[in-house]
Every structure is written in C-alpha cells, then in structure tokens.
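ok trying this again, last paste got cut off
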Amino acid sequence: MRVISGKYRGLKINGFNQEGTRPTMDRVKESVFGTIQLKLKDSIVLDLFAGSGSLGIEALSNGSQSCYFVESNKSMFSVLKDNLNFLKIKEDYQLINRDYKIALKDFSKNNLKFDLIFLDPPYDKHLINDVLKDIVNYDLLIKGGQVICEYVDEEINNENYKTVKEKKYGNKKIKIIERN
C-alpha cells in the first residue's frame, strides 16, 4: 500500500496485512481524491476508523491543513503511529486511540468541525447511519462539508445530506455525501 498522490506520493504505508483490515484500493483512492480535490486545500479532516491512516495521510499529502486519526484497535493504532513517524508527516495531526463514540463527543465538546470526514468502519458492524446521525447531532461537519463512506451492503440514510458521488468497486461501495 502506498500514498498515491501529493507530496508524499509513492511512499509506503504499512498495515494492509493486519488482521481485520481492508485497505482502500489505489484505484478507489484515486477516484475519491479526484472527486474531493477542490475541498482538500487547508481542510480539517477526520479519519474515523483510521486503520493504517491511508486516507488521512493521502489528504495531508494533498494539502489538508490537519487530520484527526481515530482508531480504537491498539495494534492498528501502533501501525498508524509508525506510518506517520516513518513518513515524517510535517502537517498537523492528532492521534486518538479510543472508541469512535467517545471521540465524536469529545470533538463536539471542543467545538471542533471538519471539512471532510472519512468513514470506513468495519463492514459487518453497519455503523454508517449511526455515525452520520452523530455527525449531525454533534454538529461536527461544516456546511458544505463532505463525508466519504466506504461500505459493502448498508443502505445509507441521506436525510441530512445530498449525494455527490456514488460508485461501486467490486463488492465495495463509495458514497460521497455533503451536508445540506
């Protein structure tokens, strides 16, 4: 797995072989980042369920101001930390090793709002709709901000969002939605 574009392009990211992970394929990342490229410059990004940090690192590589990486699995959190250290990431980032629900509440208490949120939870948990509700309830996304969802078989409720792009890649689906 590698960074596909931006200033860290070509650098290797570890973690693709960790149990329970499913890294986002390069062609999927290329498509996603092609769609959101105009939103990246100076953006504040949340990589929820960060895993190896591939999506947040790609955002930082392409001009995001800062990224908050949330990963509850201690083993993956260690891989994430190692990736950020190995890549010598210069941009501002925060590493958060806790459950996503606690992290979202903390962001709300600190009046933090994001321009972009990467949402790639474990597929079998079907968490996307719950997280999307929390994002609205805690007011964590700026108006016009986007959520990039990666999933397999969930039906995503769009009542507070409009669809920007929806595409299927094999059995994976990507849906980019924007706050109304």
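PB: full thing came through this time. The mean pLDDT is 91.
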